[in-house]
# Entry
Amino acid sequence: MIIGYYQYHPEFGATGRNLEKVEDTLVGVDADIIVLPELAFTGYFFQDREELRELAEDVSESPIVQSLSRLCKNNAFYMVAGFAERFKERLYNSAIVIGPSGLLYRYRKLHLFHTEKEYFDPGDTPLGTIEIRGARVGVMICFDWAFPEVARSLALQGADLLCHPSNLVLTYCQKTMRTRSLENSVYSVTANRTGKDARPRGELLFTGQSQIVGPKGEVVASSDSDEEAVVLRAVDLSGARNKAITENNDLFADRRPEFYDAIVKTS
Amino acid sequence: MIIGYYQYHPEFGATGRNLEKVEDTLVGVDADIIVLPELAFTGYFFQDREELRELAEDVSESPIVQSLSRLCKNNAFYMVAGFAERFKERLYNSAIVIGPSGLLYRYRKLHLFHTEKEYFDPGDTPLGTIEIRGARVGVMICFDWAFPEVARSLALQGADLLCHPSNLVLTYCQKTMRTRSLENSVYSVTANRTGKDARPRGELLFTGQSQIVGPKGEVVASSDSDEEAVVLRAVDLSGARNKAITENNDLFADRRPEFYDAIVKTS
# Structure
């Protein structure tokens, strides 16, 4: 199975141009699953909820979803892309999974970062997985990396591969995602964006350094902080299905969930 | 508060000599909490349950506990030490917390590594914390590092500091413990041993590299793979009490435990 990412600079507010750039770049690419950054078409640093609402789309009538579906069909691959989602009066920082038959899955970011809380609604979709060409795939978005529960919940539900669209401004995440892969024995693809969002309210510089990580926490491939690149690797997902780390230890069978209650306490 | 570790080579089976070495080295040391390695007095690589039973002690009548209590009283510090525990017919890979007033706390390792399963019983004590001189302290042992639920459960119960007696043969753990400190915004002290256990059944080489890590995942102090050393640092535990990472984000308040059920499923 060939997995990877497209690291690039989405221009703020230029949804059409960003979509065109993704289509032009990915046409003819030989891959199974390609991950794009968080908010891959709108840009990231919104002024307010009004501005976001103008740029967000309802998946059921989204030109982006329609275009990506055609792209996936014509090139026989699947994509995981960050997506500004409008649903009735709500606005979500979502990721969509699209394949040759169209939209397959949608995840709404559970853990919003900083100013996202001003204009996005918190995610309300469960942490789940989907199957793509025999691989079980989990989706998490950017700041979800900071919460070990996210990758863990996806892996416990069978994820072989964590697809992780991101818009990172710091670089803590990359090292932590190596731990996420190691502790869960799964592949992960963090697709970060590059470039700046220079807006009236301020400027954010995104840090690239997208990476593909293997189930031992090893970096299989990675990019610089500012290059635009499609990076793909052939991987053997059976490595993610073997949770054994010694002849007597299995990362999942050895868990003692009856001692982990503090993690789900909601008080 | 002054925290740290004593990294050394416990000689297999030489409980008396190991205890004497610890006493000789730590007498007069100015510290609040000193962490020793896992199985700090017996050594690690037992042949079988019979051999372990011979060397293990019941905390209620343990010469080691009595000696360490005197050491703590005479030097006004607290210790966290790995301890082969016998309790009725059961044998645990435990860690004991001892202070000037004697034994304060005992934790029995929940996640046993490799051959430990042949001779130790799995831990049956909950993940809890204790207060020492105003600091809330959580205890975990060696391979517990691989399970994010352990550090998380301790931190959610208020731990400012994770004390982590270890007997590591690989070096994955150190990087992961930086993630554990970062994701929970807590200090951690990993006290690893050095030297070999060369036994009839085989030889294990322990990898040292003990470390003190701060709440941003930063290495505050660390040791080489084979040096014997007492390493102490003055730290400000208030850094572990501030879980804010932006003006809008708090690592704990931002959690969404209602979405983490997969983690405590026992089926």
In short: Residues 63-75 of chain B form the longest helix (13 residues). Chain B has one domain: 2-264.
